[in-house]
Design a protein that fits this description.
Blueprint lengths: L1 H13 L4 E6 L8 E9 L1 E2 L4 E2 L8 H4 L5 E6 L2 H9 L7 E8 L8
Antiparallel strand pairs: 1-5, 2-6, 3-4, 5-6
Length: 107
């Protein structure tokens, strides 16, 4: 019985990974991208209560790019930290990408 309860608890804690990808400007879905910045987002209680950096402005991380991609997900490391804290602290990760064609010095 204890093994089943432990397995159910692990399944619940590790089953809520997600991934969102937002294309801004003239970016095609299959276009090659270059990672320019990333930031952890801090949440409490299964991600229900956002903390200090809940509102992120893309221009603060992209230095004036017009075409970019914002990807927010819960990586393995985020899920592991969440599991260690029994989902009290639940971080996610936001990563900013620009198209390869927009990187300075690339033709």
């Amino acid at each position: 019985m204890k093994k089943m309860l432990f397995a159910a608890l692990c399944a619940v804690c590790l089953s809520s990974c997600y991934n969102t990808k937002i294309l801004v400007g003239d970016v095609q879905p299959k276009e090659p991208l270059v990672k320019v910045n990333s930031e952890w987002n801090h949440h409490l209680i299964f991600g229900l209560v956002p903390l200090d950096n809940a509102t992120m402005v893309a221009k603060d991380y992209l230095s004036g790019q017009e075409n970019y991609v914002v990807k927010t997900n819960q990586s393995f490391l985020n899920m592991f930290v969440s599991w260690l804290t029994c989902c009290i602290y639940t971080p996610t990760q936001t990563v900013y990408y620009v198209p390869l064609r927009d990187v300075k010095g690339v033709q």
